[in-house]
Structure formats: C-alpha cells, structure tokens
Input
Amino acid sequence: MAGKKRKGAPTEKSTVSASTAVSNAQSGETSFPRGGASVLTPLEHKEIAIKAAQDLFSGNKGTTEEPATKRLKPDTKKSKKNKSKAVKAPQQQEQQQQTIQELSFRQLIPDTLLLGCISQINELQLVVSLPYQMQGVVAITEISDPITQAVERVANQQEDEDSDNDDDEEERGLPELNKLFHIGQYVVCRVLSLKDRKETKKKNLIELTLRPESINRNVPKVDVDQGVALSAYVSSAEDHGYVLSFGIDDLTGFCKNADAKKFIDEHNNGNPLVPGQIVQCMATENAKNKRTVKVTLNKVAKGVVQEPSANVDAVVPGMLVKGNVQGVQENGLTVKFMGLYDATIEHTHLPLDKKYKEGDNIEFRILYCFLNTEPRRIGGTLLPHLVQLNKPDTMDLVTYGTIVDEVTVRRVFSKKGVFVSVGGDLRGFVHISNLADRHIERLNKTDDQYGLNTTHRARVVGYNSLDAMLLLTTKESVLEDTYMRVNDVPVGQDVTATVINVNDAGVIVRLSSTIQALVPALHMSDVKLTHPEVKFKKDSQVRARVLSVDTGKRRVYLTMKKSLLETPLPLIKDWESVEQDMVSHGVIVSVRDKGATVRFYNNITGFVPAKFMTEAKVDDLTKVFRIGQTVKATVTKLDKEDKLMLLSLIKAKQVKREEKKARKEAEDAKFAVGQVVTGTIREIRSMQLNIDINGREGRIHINEAFASLDDIKSKRKPLSVFKKGDTLQVKILGARDAKTHKFLPISHTGQTKSIAECSLRLNNDKVLEETDLNVGDKMLGFVKSVEKKSVDVTLGINVVGHVRKQLTFSDVEQVKNHKFTVGEAFPVEVLSKDKEHHTIELVAQDESIPRIRDIDSVQEGLVGIGLVQKVMRNYGLIVQLSPGVNGRVHRLDLLDKYTEDPTEGFKEGMFVRYAVAAVDKEKKRVELSLRSCRIDPECVLEDKEINSIEDLETGQVLSGYVDNVAKTGVFISLGRKVNARVKIAHVSDEFVKDWQSVVKAGQLVRCKVLHVDVENKQVEATLKKSLVEGLPAPKKKTQVEDSDEEMEEADSSDEEESEDESGEEQDQDMLDVKDLDEDMLEAAQEDDESDEDDSDDEDNVEALNVNGEFDWTGQVPDDDTKDSESSSDEEEEEDAKKKKKIKEQVEDKTAELSTTAPKSAADYERLLVGSPDSSYLWINYMAHQLQLSEIEKAREIGERALSTINFREEQEKLNVWVAMLNLENSYGTDETLEAIFKRACVFCEAEKVYLQLANIYERSEKFEKAEALWQEMTKQFSQNPKVWTQFGLFYLKQDNVEGARELLQRSLKQLPKFEHTETISKFAQMEFKHGEPERGRTIFEGLLSNHPKRIDLWNVYVDKEIQAGDQDTIRRLFERITAMKISSKKMKFFFKKWLQYENENGTEEDAERVKEKALEYVNSA
Output
C-alpha cells in the first residue's frame, strides 16, 4: 500500500525537481547569455510547466490532508536533515513578499505590454487610456499591415493622380478609424517609445502599437489553447466567416459568422468586419499540430486560460487566468497563477466592496507585463468591468468640467497625489500638481489639509476609462473658472477677461485658467488706437464678446467694439439663425470697387453690392468706408444651402416689404374676428380641439365647445364625442401667439405666427374675461390641473379659477377618494375674487357646501369639510375652512373620547368634517369641533363637552388635559375656554417633595370639581385619587409628612390667605394659556394668508421696522394682554413687591418654550434648530439683537440666515435680504447698503430687490435716493409695466404731477404695444386718486375712444368717478354706457351697478328712473 501511495502521488522530491526544471528552462538567458538558447522545444516547456503545476497543486492538497513527512519514514537522521533543508529553501522564497508597486510613466520601458481602452478616435491616430491614469497614442500606421498599406497607397496617390475611377478612389481612400474602432474598446498594446515633458514641452508622450505580430511575438503555437484570448486583425472576409492573423508563425485563425455576430451587432453597428480591423478573439480549441485554429469573438470576456503557458514570455495582457492569493499587503495582493508564475494586483485595481485573504482562489485579468526586466513584473486587475470586459457603470455619470461638492481622501501618496471617493462607489484621483495653486513638495497621511478622510471641492478634468477613475483638481483657480474647454465658450456671449499682453496681432486676454483668447487689432475699439498698450494695461479687467471659436486649433477670438457690445439687434451667429430682411451689426473686412464684405460672428460673411452701400453714388468707396468699421446691414438675399448672403446698408427693399405686408393684411382679413368658417379636426387633446381652417391652424378651447352641462355626454372626457376628421362650423374669436401663447382679441400685425381662436357657440360674441365674473355667478368649468390641495378650473379661454378640494364635494370620503382628470367637466360657483392679485376662488355647485367668503359669513353651527393646516400636540389643529379663513380645534374637541394624544390620528393635508362651535368676529377667530355631537346631535358622548363655566357643577368627575404646571399649582383644561386650578395640596394623596414631577403639560388626567365660582369664572379641582375615584387615602406617613401636615393644620388660614393673594397671579396664568392659544391661531392664520399672498404676488414683502418692538409680515405672539392687565391693577403691583422679598426658586422653563414667544438668544437658537428655513424666526432674532443695540450681531445673524436657509426657499431668502437692506439703511452707511444691495441682486431676482430698496428709501423719506433708483430701474427693467406705474405713483405721492405725466410718455416708447392699454389705465387711476381727477378723465376718454368695446375699462372708469363723487358726471357716464350696443349680460351688470349707486347716493326718484331705463332696454331688445 505504501508503494502505491508513493507511485500515485508526487513526492516532495519530484515536485521540487519539476519546479527546478521549469526554472532552469525559463532561465536559459542566464545560462547562455550570448546567443545561447534553451535546449527544450516549446512543447517540452509546456509539458514541464503543466507537470509542475499539477505537482504544486497536488502537493498543496497533500499537505492539508496528510503531511508528506508522515507518509515517508526516513531511515536515518541524515536523510531527515537533508530533507528538511530541501523543503526549507523554497519555503523561504515563498515567504519573502513581493514588492507591490504602482505603475508609473518613469517605470515604463519600450516593449512593455499593456491592456488599454480607446478613449478618443482622431483621423490619423487613436488615443488609448492606459492603467494608472496614463494615456498613449497609436499612429494609423501602427495598427495592422492592411491599414498601413492603405495609408501608403493614399500617400503615393498624391504624387500620381492618373485614375478617375470613383471605385478606385474609394479603395485607395484613407481608412476611417471611427468605423474600425469604437470608444470603450479594449485593446492590447506594446510600448514603442517614451518621451517626457522636456522633449515634448507639453506632457509625457507614450507611443504604442497594436500590431498583433508585435503583441504576440513571444507566444508559441502550442500555447494557443482553449480559453486563451489573443489580439488579431482581420486578414480576409470569406463566405462563412473571417480569417484572422495573430502574427504567430504557421498559425491563423478562423471565426465563423455566427461566432462574430454578437460582436458585430453590439460594437460594429451591424457592419461586417473589414481587412485590417483589430479584434480580441478567444481560441475554442487547441492549436497543437494545426495550422488554423477556430476562434470566437462573442465569448472573449468569459474565456479562462485552462492550461499553463510553456513560458512566462507567452503571457500577454487581456488573458483571464486562475490564481491563488499568496499574500495580502496594505497596497495590494501577491498571487500565483498557472501554478508557477507570480503577479501583483495593486489596490487601485481591487473592488472596494470585497476583502481577500491568503489562500483564496481568484480569476483575474492580466493588466501589464514587463518581460525584458529582472525580475519580470506581471500586473493584474480584479475590477469587475475589466474582468468582464464591459463598459464601466461610472463612464457616463460625470462630464468634463463638472464641479463635485465633496470628495473624501482615501489614500495618500507623498509624491504622486491622493485617491478620493466621490459619492460612494465612484473613485477619483487628484495629482499632486492639481491639489492647489501653490507648489506642494510632499504629502502626508496625517496632514490636516490633504490627509486621510479630509474633504474637498473638486472639478472633473478627465476620466480614465480603463481604471474607471475620475481625474480631478482641487485648485481654487480652476474651481472658479466659468469655462474649462474651448468648446464650452459660446459665440456671442458677453465675458469679462484679464489682459495678459498687447502686441501687433491684438490683445491677448485670459478667460479662465485654461483658456486664453485674442482680441484682433480690428476689434480693440470702434476707433483706431495708436497706443493700445496705454488703454489695456496688464492684469486689467475688460469687457468683451465672443466673436468666434476655432475648436480645431483651440483658439477663441473676442471683440471689444462698443458698437457690438451694446447692440440691441439680434446677432448672426450661425446660418440657421439668419432670416430674410434680418438686420444686424457686422464689421467690414474688405472694401472693393464692386462692394464690401461684412463679417458677423462665427466668421459668417456677406457681400454688400456697391449700389446698396450708399444712397448717393460714390466713385471711391474706400473714402467712405474703412476696414474694421461697424455697420448695420440688412439681409436682402439668402441661400443657406450654399451659405451665401447679400446685404444692404440702405433701405432699398422698403417698397417690397410694404407690398408683402399688404398681402399679409389681406390674408388676415379672411380670418377677421366674428367670421364663421369651416374647420376640420386634426387633433383631439384633453383641453382643446386643434383644427385646420383652409391651411391655417386653429383651436377650440374646451370652454368654447359646450354651452351647458346638458350638452356633455361624458363628464370625465367631454371631448370624446368628437372624432378626428370631423367638419365643424366655428366662429373666429381672435388669435393666439404661437410662441408666447398670449390671446390677441384685436387685429394683429401678423409679424409672428398665430393660431386662430375659435368657438362652437356661434352666438358667442366675446371671450369671457375676469372682469365679467361676479361673486355668486354659476359657471361650467373644466379641470385644467390637479394640485395637492386644490384643483385649477378653466372658466374661459383666459380665465382660470381655483377650487379648494374641501369645497369640491359635501361628502368627506368623496373629497378624499375622487380622482380628478384633466378636462373633466365640473360645475362651479364664484366664491370670491381678488382683483389685486387676479385670483378667483370657486366652490362646487352643491348647496350643502357652505359659502364661506370671510369671517362674517361664518355662523355657529355651520357644518362643512376643512383641510388640516397644522397639527399641534399640546393644543390641537388649525383647519382651513376656505381661502383666508381658518379655524382652530381644541384638543378637547378632536375626539368623542379623550386619549393621551388626541392629535395622533391627524396629519397635515388631511380632510375632516367640522362644526363651528363659536365665532369671535371682533378678533376674527373661529372655534371648531370635530366631535360627533356637533355634527350629529343624536349621538351620545362618553366625555361630556364643557362649553362654559355654567356647565360645571361641584362634585363632577371629568377628564381634561394639563395645560400648565406653575409654582402655585396645576391648571387643567376642561373645555375650550374653561380651565380648572388644582392646588398643590390636591395634586396627590401622598406628600411628594417634587410635586411638579407628578404631572406634566399635555397629560390626560381625571379630576373632581371642588368649587365653581361663576361670577369670577374660577374653578377649583382635585387630582387626589381618594376624592376622584373614592379610594381610601394612604394611612402610613413618614415623620416629614406628619410634621408637614401639622404645619398645614396650624397655618391653614395663612395658606388660604397666601393662596388668595396669589389668586390673581394664578388666574393670570390661566389667562396666559388661553391667550397663547389664540396667538398661535393668529400666527397660523397669518401664515395661511401670507402663503396665499406670496403665491400671487411675491413682491409684497414687508420691510423691517424696529421701533422698540419688531413687526414683520405675520404677527409675533406677544404677552401684551397679560402685561397690560397685570400692570393696571394696583393690588397686583403690591403683591409683586411682596413676592420680590421672597427668595425665588430656580425654575426650568424649557418645557414652556414651544408655547411662549422667545425672549432670549438661547430661545431663538433652540427654535432655529427645529425651523432653520424660517425667515420669520431669523428676522425676529435680528430685531431682538437690535433692541439690545447689538448691530454687528444682527448683521452676523443675517449672514447666518442666508447661508443656512435652503437654496430652494427663494422667498425665505428674499425676506432676509430685505431685512438686511432695512438694517443697513437704518444703522449702516451708504457703502454697506450698496454692498448688501449688489449681493442681493446676484442671489435673488434683481427686479424684486430693486423694488424693495425703492420702497425702503420711500418709507425712510430718502426721496432723492428713491428717485435715482427708480430712474435706474426704468433703464434696467424697461419692459416691465409695473416699474413704470410704481414710479409714476411715487411721483404723484411727491406732488410731482408733471414728472408722472412725462413718465407716462416715456413708458409708451419703451413698453411693447400690448402693454400700452393697461399702463395708460393705471396712470389714469393714479391721477384720480393722487393727482387731478380731470386729468384722469381726459386719459380715460382718450383710451376709450380707441377701445370703445373694452368693458373692463368702462367699469374701472365708473368706479373711479364714483370715488371722485361728482354725481352729474357719474350719471352722464352711466347714460353713455347704457346707450352703447353691448351684450345683455354686460348691460345687466351696468344697470345693476347704476341702481346700486342710486340706492346708496341718490333719491327714490333717481332709482326709479334707472329701473325705467332698464325696462326700456329690455323691451327694445
């Protein structure tokens, strides 16, 4: 048996001898240094290697199962000693750890083999990403022999061009590398040469080759086995496949079409492979004794080398091999593969989420090979994308120039740089030269700035697709750059640049740390500069505009001509933007007898014939025009296909344009307002029908498709009754601009594309406007959009209203569950109108839904559905009844049965059914109840509802919530306005030293009413269980308790007296709780209203006003009531003096902080932790510091607020900016105010900031500064009518009537025409209110003469006359209006308005006269 074992399993001696044989065979160069060679053939090498690998692995197994020393029994001590020596030598070699080094440019030598990934494809070269953030280039002649031959043919063809055959030209054309390779393709390459920065004067250059004969020159034929991946090029394409060349003697490959199909479809765009194309293939059989071996292109990534290579020189990058981890070091792994050869895997090529240990079996891919050095170096990789040869997941995540807010340093190399993690699994590398603008000599892991785990902002400057690693920089100069690449610089963009130098070519400037630009001499100024270096000094800042960008040469050209910088005309930057008759500024670049050439942006040029340059004939054009002159040119003829353009410097085409305009007007006349035409439906949408009217686009809004709800068959999809292609008779209502979507009810110029607005209601004469609606009008609406808390409903083409969801149905479940769809028909009623903010609130046409318009319309007992706005655990709920009207629900009114936390089942945004319990119209407060007894009076409650002190009786046992634990006792809330006091002696049956810990605020307790004082509204109760539940009092007492009780009996009268003296204070504490609740409701009410105001008019921001107290936007909860009541009573003052004599106990008030207004900096800091985005808290905090005369602290708090508030909270930030402006205006200097103002304009909308500062100046009576700011605003925001009207109002308030009138004329020159009517109307209204009413009448009369059908203008005119109070004028105006020919609905409106006026201001005869006129109108109609 022993003999069989020795024969079947290799002994130690055989293993060592086999390994020694392979080692000797591999070290032939050492034995025969000059011309010698191994005596073994490649086949013998391979057999020995396989034998050694088997012996090694079988030996390992033997040692784990049974040590060899146990199987072999030595005869003598001498043999044992020799054997130990034989085993010890290789063990010492294995224990000696290999040095793991990261590959770098300095370590590279020619003939190094590398695995690469193609990152860029140029016309004549490939750019290849190499391991460890290196990059190399492959010339077109270093790819394969067929491609090199094609290049040589093209070179020879330039010398001899005799053939005209197109086919021959195609054959001899330069190979298109972008069709032979693709970005992300993995290739094996060999280093040809290396050039450092000193030689190239730019960056290190690595020249590579992809030729298979160079890559595989050390691979013997016998090593081409199943699973071996090799580089090859397509030699020829056959009927059934492709013949491939490996560059190995006496061996070619053949790939069937089926084995190449997947590769062709995924990586070759489905095109067949062409001769010379480089591919990675995998052998599917052994090439031994064969001249052609079968290969596949589809399974290269899965091919694992099965047999060891005969020689280590036969190992090439790209092979997937099996290995065994020999050692785990800090910077990587040492492995042994094929059982014989050593390799290293550096830490950057290990997955982040996997750990390895010694003895692990792994599959890794060969990354690089140094085979002509001693010792030989082979590197591997375990990165998933390289092992699987697929595209890394991170390749498309971050683009060049992207700023990464936070990267964390994970590894530090003292002279190379740092490796960082970006957002988790994404890896990055920052070279030491890219860490800072200053020079860094060395790095240290423990350095505070760039050490381990430090975080930095970084910017992407590259990406190594092979390592799947971002290349980053943390230089401040690069982080601040606007542009990183020449491609990023947009033509026509205004830029600020820094002057570097001035020479004959022009001015060289710096746009960013990576981009320089040239301002040509012609573009330095509109006039010729004799000494430009005087004007443009080095490092000075200049304003310029990008003239053109040459991405091929990486050059940027700018212009500093003032005429081009300040031109209001459109810029010609590309041929697509050029249009016929377009007018733009250009620069003359040449002048000839026949005309001149004008150049625009991006080197686009046009020719101006001589006859179109001047109106008068000029013999010598060079005397009138000069090169570099800026001219205004009109495009007269355009050929975009050939890129030709004729220009004119005079208006020679004016007649032709007028004729064209006349034809356009004649065309528009066919579609005049009121015409009935035939249209065909071409598209059906949820809110409109798109139709075709004789080739012109039109649409029918859903509101114009149906007259009433009875006409609609499907309420969910009303337009489903129409079909595409249906022919309809429609009436033209107007037009809508296709770009701005603005409705044009009056005839338009036709300069822009418009869509005809049509109606199926042929009797409809006018489009519904907002002014036509009155409160109570019932309309048919259609759902436009659905929000979380409301539904937008269209009432007409231009009118949209809002329905709060609680007002859509009378059933709560239906409100919660109904899913509105866009286009759904929904009958509504106008609930309220806000003319100032142009909002319309609606309610469903359900009579059971309450119509709550304001606090006056709320009645006790009213039942409806509300929206929970806020949930406050220690108080209850704030519920929105309707827009602007909120109610509060006390925690006692939330549930029928009291619970520990009655608010637990409620959350914000929830819909609830409420009943109005009480209304205080003076204080504008509404008390609600959610209890069943309020909504359904027949139900029986477990916990009785206490509405007033009259509902209480002595001896009652009730449940309530602890409102406050004060020094004098416990206050329990039994009802909304009913509190009971529990004296200290009645808190517990037992004596408790720390009695305040027995109960806490918000706790549910059972108490018994001891005394009810209806007159003074005081209730005394007890919490003693012996009295509440009837349990016997505890008998055992401690000595301390006995003594306390005796003292209590002895001094009972004193205690009662002291309690009576402090009664007022205790009552006051009860009052404070109620007042505090009311203040919380007021704050919530104000928040709700301010939210709505903000959504409609974001500009309405109150300014900071510090006069002893601070008041801004919402009301700050205060204790005014408590202070005034306590201070008005002389007895309380005397009590206060007495109490001052008593030693005050330290009291923890943090529990009350959430229910009281903050009174110190610490209070504000605690509140800001919970609400960091609340500008309300920040500004009150600033005001608190100002009251303490801490102006600098107030500034610091403002800066903290701006940096803390989330960037999405734009309105909150604007509030803080306005507060800062107020602060600097009142306590700062002009310089500090200007600085804050400029910063605010950068971070907020500049127009809003300007308006706020103007209002601040006006309120602080700095009228000169306000006027100067208004003047600047009319230049900055000349297209905004609000600026002009507000400026006019400012003038009128300052009694500068003439200034306001001049301003009106100026505004009409600046504003677009469609804004004129509204602007003139606003000025007329201001004249009535602040100026001269007669002037206002004149303006209105002129306006109405041009727009006699504008009912909204007549209505405003009437309102202003009524305010003026001239009865004769008012009546004449009403008579004029009622004599007009308008619709009966509008006439009804004016008669109603007239009758209302006469009832209020006239006599009964006047009112009867109006009724008679109305009757006459009805009879005549």
Q: What stands out?
A: The two ends are 129 Å apart (CA to CA).
